[in-house]
Each structure stands twice: as structure tokens, then as C-alpha cells.
Amino acid sequence: MASRQEIVDYIVAQVLGSGAVRSRKMFGEYSIYCKEKVVALVADDQLYVKPTEGGRAYLQDAQEAPPYPGAKLYFLIPEDRWDDAPWLTQLIRITQQELPLPKKKPKRSGTKK
Asked: Per residue, what are the HEC states of the chain?
């Protein structure tokens, strides 16, 4: 089941205080970026935040689940916490600070063989 755009838009609006936040649609689901790092996924209209030690300490009783079959475990954030913008913003900020910068992809050459 693909996630709804309005759910993603709401979550992004809630965490704008974290920094440069945006979403990107991928295969019917969405990645949420903060300062160009993927910090969360929205899959089946549920919010999954990448696990970090700081995030685990902040959540204290983190529920974990895979966002899709075969995926690594992420923190599953209950829908009733989405309305608490300061809380959710802090979680995204903590997550973003602990994640490494994405690796640069090699440039493709424009020549054909």
C-alpha cells in the first residue's frame, strides 16, 4: 500500500524546525531528508525513523519494526506522537546529527560504448 502525500506533508511540516527538511517519493513510499541525510521513511502511512544511539536514549522505550519486508529495523513512531512538533523535531535533529553524510555517487560519463 502506497503512503499518502498528505501524511508525508504533515510530518515534514511538523519537523521543519530540524533544519532543511524535504521528502522524496520512492516506489510509492517516501524518504524524509534532513540536511541531505535520510533520517526517516514513511511506508504504509507509518513513520519510521532511522535508529541511532541518541534516538534510542531520547525515545527510551523505542518500538522497532522494518518499514518493508527484508528491511533493517527502524524506530516506529506512533501516530499519536506526530502532533507533538517539538518532540518530533528533536528526535529528527538528534537522528540527523548522528548519521554520516551520504557517500558521493560517482559521476557518469556521457559517452556511450
From this structure: CCCCHHHHHHHHHHCHHHCCEEEEEECCEEEEEECCEEEEEEECCEEEECCCHHHHHHHCCCCEECCCCCCCCEEEECHHHCCCHHHHHHHHHHHHHHCCCCCCCCCCCCCCC
